[in-house]
Amino acid sequence: MIKTVEPWNKLNDAQRQSYAKADRVWNGWRSAEEEAYGFYRDRLPEFDAVLDASWAKWSYTSKKDEILGVNHSVKSYNVKPPRDFPLFLGVSHAHSRFLSQQLHIPVRTQWNPVDVDAIPMQRDKSERLLSLNRVMPTKGIHYFLDVCEKTKAKGDVAGDDSTLVPDQGYVNMVKQRCAKSANVVYHGLVSDAERVKLLQNAKATLCFVDGGYQEVFGMQAVESLAAGTPVIAADSWGFSDTIQDGVTGFIIKNIDEAVKRVTEVMDGTVRFDPAVCRASAERFARGPIAQRLEKTLKSVQRGCRW
Description:
The protein contains 11 helices and 10 strands. The chain is of the alpha/beta class. The protein has 2 domains: 8-113 and 286-301, no CATH class; 116-283, Glycogen Phosphorylase B (Rossmann fold). Strands 7-6-5-8-9-10 form a 6-stranded parallel sheet, sandwiched between helices. Strands 1-2-3-4 form a 4-stranded parallel sheet.
């Protein structure tokens, strides 16, 4: 264990603001990563292989070859890292294909691990829909509100609305729409316990995208399935990997289709088995994903390159 800087969720508002002022494009993340890199840069040679999950991939400035870079963003790098074998990983199959096409290099897929053990399955559901996502325009929270209005369904909006969200005007718009709604409750950033309860009680979790954005993985979809709750999601990269259309939820093309599917779920025309949803989520549990990653790291240690 190499101690570097405090994790973002342990910083107070003043500390976050100080990072953000020095790093407006990345909202503070890049500056924090650069500072952290100074703590472990000289120790990289001690390790057989390194997994770099940072946004800016500082370890790629070193001379070490055995570095795998996990990407968590739609936006690719403008050029590939300055090495013969970048060993890049996407977090869904479509995400990996996109990165490969953009950078003209092979990119493999490494799904994100999800702590499904922290989210017990619950069979009994309420008659409420759930939006659990960072409150940003690209995450399509406004579409969730539109669907609730069109179907007259009750709903809950929860997710990060802190200073990590640059468009606070959008946050306020969502809050105002919820306040005026007779059916939707705005929760904002909730505790882990509250998040689990919302996931367990929801009839379905809805996931949208907007503005050309692609969800590269979609942690909330897997967490919902772990709770035994089906997911109705936009036809976006990560959801294609995590949701089995017609089995654990629906992949929808537009809002009209979302309204149709929500209506079917709410009136009981379509029913999903919570146990099947839970079993699907187990594919992304920490244990299996860690084993897969360990296998990849060992292959890199032995000289595998791509």
